[in-house]
Amino acid sequence: MDHSTLVFASVFPVLALSHTTPTPIATPDLGYTAPGGSFGSPHAGRNVEAQGQGQHRAVKRGLAWSCATRFLSLPKNSSLAPKPQRTREVVEALNYLLVGEGRSEDGKEEGLVQWYTNECRLHFAKHIRAGLEQLWRKEIELEHSWDILDETQRAFEHVQGVYLEPFLEHILPYLQQDTSSSTVRPRRPTQMIEDSADAAPWKFRRDLHAIFAHCLPSQRYTKSLSYVLYDAGCRLFRIYIRHDGIQPRMTPENTREFRQRMTTLLQGLERVGLGGDSAQEAFAHAMNKLLDSFITSHYLKVDWYSKKSIVPHLKMWIQDGFCPLVELVLECLRCEQSSILPTEVSAWQEMALGRLGRARVDSLFDFVINWHKSLGAILDIKEYLNVAGAKQHLTSSFSQQISRRLLHPGATSTYILNIYISIIRSFHELEPKGVLLERVARPIRRYLKEREDTARIIISSLLTDLSDETGSKFSSNSELSYEIASEMAQPFANYGQEADEELNWGDMNWQPLPQDASPEYKKSKVEDVIWFLLTLWERDDFINELRNILGDHLLRCQDPEYEREIRLLELIKLRLGDDKMQACEVMLRDVLDSNRINASIRATITSSTSPALATPDRRSREPQTPEGLRPRTPRPRRPTATSHLAPSTSSQVQPVSLTLNAQILSSFFWPLLRDDTFRVPAQIDTLQKEYESRFERIKGMRKLRWMDALGEGSITLDFDDRTEEFDRLTSWQISVVYAFQPQPSEEHAAKKRAGKGGEGVARNVQQLEEMLEMDEGLVRQALAFWVGKSVLREVSHDTYAVIEKLPSKSTLANADHEAAAAAEELAAVQAAETNAVKSQSDLLSEKKDIYTAFIVGMLTNQGNMPVQRIAMMMRMMVQGGFPFGIDEVKGLLGEMEAGGKVVGLGGDVWGVRK
Amino acid sequence: MKVTIREWNAVAAWRWDMPDDDVCGICRNPYDSTCSKCKFPGDECPLLLGVCNHSFHMHCIFSWLKQESSQEKCPMCRQPFKSKSQDATAATDNQTPAQAPDTSPI
Hints:
The structure holds two protein chains of two kinds. By secondary structure, chain A is mainly alpha-helical. Helix content of chain A is 57%, strand content 6%. In chain A, strands 5-7-6 form a three-stranded antiparallel beta sheet. A three-stranded antiparallel beta sheet of chain A has the order 8-10-9. Chain A has a two-stranded antiparallel sheet with strand order 3-4. Chain A is elongated, with a radius of gyration of 50 Å. The termini of chain A are far apart. The model of chain A is unreliable at 26-34, 36-50, 183-194, 495-499 and 609-656 (pLDDT under 50). Chain B is of the alpha+beta class. Chain B has two helices and three strands. A two-stranded antiparallel sheet of chain B has the order 2-3. Chain B is elongated, with a radius of gyration of 17 Å. Chain B starts with a strand and ends in a 12-residue tail after the last helix. At the A-B interface, helix 25, strand 1, helix 28, strand 2 and strand 3 of A face strand 1 and helix 2 of B. Strand 1 of chain A pairs parallel with strand 1 of chain B.
């Protein structure tokens, strides 16, 4: 014992330091006597009044002390060795020390109980502690925690038994005896229990437990216990996805047995004093994790079929599964409060709901994709939204998912649109007010707006008929969205009442805006998917786009009644208001009116029949109806009379009637249309002239301009060995093949050639260009088409001939076949690129010369300029406007630089090359 | 090979028989467009050519002529406005029975 410890002990009595070992019987060691002190303990004498009576008592006490301590001292090995019998001497000593005069007085002398406690402590430290420390020194592996805890608990229990037995047997009876006769001291009423006999065993136990608890590394103990409880919970609830990564056994365990084991352990731990705060803390940890595990393992599955929320079930589990377990454990640990309050249950339910919701939100995107099957999960999230902070979490998490999984260049616009629609629908279910939707959809809308093809996809999908060829049209990468089309197919609800609902004072169902709504929140009809799509853009932009697409669509449309188009236009007018829609309405009116004009012009033609031009209308054989009133087929796009023509012989005998149907457009309101010009077949040309003159006669002061490239027709080709029919070909395709007919001058030559190889008239590209005054590109496109149809064959470079007789020889046939396949592909690609409406890029390339000249002139006059300025000047100055941006200007400048006209001076500044 | 055309659907654009990029002197809209009140061009919003060779949308010039201050003069040249007679025939032409009733000028 070093000096400083001694100094410390002299001021603050430390029991461990002053502990006396029992004195042997033979040579009673009465300790040392300090001057003026007495026997007994080192400190015993210090505070005793140095009086005679005191002296005497001290001696007596010393004797009794040594006797009692000798009796009570613990054996070295902790087994319960039979104690020596209490002798009379011992009884007297005990009696004297515990209840008699030798009793310690208010801590001035060491009491026997204190001594015994100390003895236990020392004994424990000497003999037991080492073993336990050995057990707990290292990290406890998870699977051993049960065993170690068991073992520890057993060891403690045993030791506790050993320590308690002498105490209960030899000390307690005296104390109890004493209390029954003593009176309660009024001096310290509050702490009276400490002095009473009941308090003694409690205190002793507490001290013991403190010793036990002290010898274990507390954190490690808490962790192990927490794990054990978690494990128990997992097994009891048959959780199979666990935090610890342990795979559960396949065979279900006997939960009853297991519950028993857990209860025993807990009760045991509680008995040895390990069930205090730390155990409760461990328990709280365990239950926390257990809740998570349970939700992950049992509730993360989505019920794709019954589409029900699992929240009620979860709540039930909390109440009927989780709470009883908690109660059981609390009871085992003998907590002060062993029953669970209803508020706690609901708090736990909310907690569980929060966790479930968070887990669900993490995969919300998948649920949206799988809408409507994921309804159950969405309903779960809906419940979750009532939890505080849930909305923020949902918004941020979902936005993240969207930006990671949806808004990237890899996703097609159609896909994004489809997902957007799913989002609209599922969020409508989630929160009918639409605040969340608005928040979540903002990035999608912004992104969709940036994509060029969005408007086209939306509008063409809106115009698609669901019923025909559904399977082929809506493949994953197609330009049509099934979702939009089906949305369109739904009945036409009345969305007309656009009146400001906020000002409708009579509205008894008025509700204030949701408090979390953003300023631009509008009370939208959330379920109206089309409304969302149509409001993606500024109205003007959208209507412009609509005009282009509708124009193209109307020209291609096959339905003479234009039902879908009318419907779409009405729908858009309802939702976006009908101003600014003039162009679209005019276009629609044009195509509808064209039917009537056709009819009336045809009527004038038939009445003034000039046999050379118009052979009798074949419809005149049908029951005659007034032309203007014919409702369904005023202008059949598909020839109704194909059956008449099918047998080739009859078609040759009968003079084939040819009708010209025209669509008369109000060019001002249509988007810019293709106006490549070329020579249409002479026959058509005459008809067109005739039509034109009649039109001009009916509508005074008006001229017609034929847009040759937009026409289409159906033809029959008669070869030497076969007859083929083609419907709905473009005008230039017909014109090209028409040009392959032998000219009167060639008739003879063609006949001669027809003999070998089965080839008819041959023409090369240049000839065709001259004959038809057609663009080379168009000529080649048409040629590719006809090669694809096995009508033409490329006999030498750029020269094509008609295949009058299909080759029978296999090699030639194969070659033809291959060439046809290749050409067909080419033609298909090219056809996809041709549109009736001019695209921006067409426009740019068309006007390139003007623009280049303008730029050169401007740069020459005004010196070098940055690109922005050039673009700005062009927008202001170029005749007819300059609808392009800086990028196009840069492109133009690049081309001009390559052509040596301008030179880049760096930093976006350009100048004229000198 | 013989090509027989069975059917031909052509597309044509109509224009008023007026010089290009000229606008109605009153509403400043191109002739091919409508006056500011109409929706559909053509039959519903015809042009009217005066003897002074100034032409306007019919609705535009009518509403102009109705005003007191116009004194029935052409707004361009201040001569008394009279429509050319040929226009009258054209107008009657417009109302031939072949025309469906709803497209006739108002």
